[in-house]
Backbone:
C-alpha cells in the first residue's frame, strides 16, 4: 500500500513529471479527422494514474519551459488527507523563475481590449 511507502520512507509527497512526454507533432491528417494513438496517450498520462486510481491528493505545478519552448510541470502526490501539503509546496514554488509563457502565447482576454 502507498500509505506504507510514505510511512516507511518518511515521505510527505512524491514528485513526478506532470506528463510523461512532450506532445508529439500533430500529423497533418489529424487536422481534419483527428487522431487516436493509444500508445502515445498512455505514455503521456503514465504519471497521472497513481494519484487518480488511489484517490491521493495531487497538484500540478508549473516548472518552466522545455528546450522547444513548451510549458512543463511537475506534480506532487501527497498522502491521503494531506491536501495542505500539496497547496503549501505549490505556493512555495510560485516564483517568477518557474512561471513561463510560451513564445507564441496570445492572451485572448487582453487581445479583445
Residues:
Amino acid at each position: 500500500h502507498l500509505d506504507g511507502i510514505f510511512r516507511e520512507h518518511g515521505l510527505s509527497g512524491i514528485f513526478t513529471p506532470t506528463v510523461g512526454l512532450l506532445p508529439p507533432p500533430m500529423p497533418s491528417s489529424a487536422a481534419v479527422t483527428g487522431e487516436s494513438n493509444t500508445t502515445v496517450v498512455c505514455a503521456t498520462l503514465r504519471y497521472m494514474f497513481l494519484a487518480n486510481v488511489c484517490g491521493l491528493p495531487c497538484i500540478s505545478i508549473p516548472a518552466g519551459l522545455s528546450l522547444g519552448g513548451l510549458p512543463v510541470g511537475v506534480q506532487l502526490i501527497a498522502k491521503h488527507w494531506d491536501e495542505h501539503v500539496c497547496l503549501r509546496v505549490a505556493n512555495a514554488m510560485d516564483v517568477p523563475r518557474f512561471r513561463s509563457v510560451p513564445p507564441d502565447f496570445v492572451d485572448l482576454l487582453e487581445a479583445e481590449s
In short: The helical segments are 2-9, 30-33, 38-45, 49-54, 83-92, 108-111. The first strand starts at residue 13 and ends at 17. The first helix runs from residue 2 to 9. Residues 30 and 36 are 9 Å apart (CA to CA).
